[in-house]
Each structure stands twice: as structure tokens, then as C-alpha cells.
Amino acid sequence: MDYKRVKEIMENREILDIYYHDNPVWIQEIKQDTAKVGFFNGTTQDVFIEELYEKEDDDSYQVF
Fold first, then answer.
1. Contact 35, 53 (CB under 8 A)
2. pLDDT truncated to tens, each residue of the chain (64 aa)?
3. What are the beta bridge partners of residue 44?
4. Which are the contacts of 32, defined by CB distance < 8 A and separation ≥ 6?
5. Other CB atoms closer than 10 Å to residue 24's CB: what's the count?
6. Nearest to residue 55, comparing CAs of 14, 19, 13?
7. 3-class SS at 55?
8. What is the pTM of this model?
9. How many CB atoms lie within 10 A of CB 35?
């Protein structure tokens, strides 16, 4: 994923299936080339934006 797409998601508060290493996450904030993401187990982690991806309906992955 790229910075522009992550920023767009955050500004629009879209509810999308965003993943990091096959784990669903939500984006909490972005800083240059990293994003703070939250996991469903309650933990957070700073990750590179390029490692985030959206899952499409047909179970394939779309990398931005």
C-alpha cells in the first residue's frame, strides 16, 4: 500500500479489510513511511506502509 492510499483511508474513516502479514488491522496513525496499526488482540505496532494490503472479496490480495 502507499502513503496516499493510507491517508485516504484514514481521512474517510472507511471500514475496509486491511491486513499486515495475514492479520487484520486498523490504521491508527501514519508518519512518513510507517503506520501505527492495531490488532484485534489489543496490541499495536509500527509497520512499514508498504507492508499493508487490502483484501478483495474474492480472497485475492491487492497491493498498492
1. no
2. 888 888 887 777 666 789 999 999 999 999 999 999 999 999 999 999 999 998 866 555 555 4
3. 38
4. 3
5. 14
6. 19
7. strand
8. 0.69
9. 27
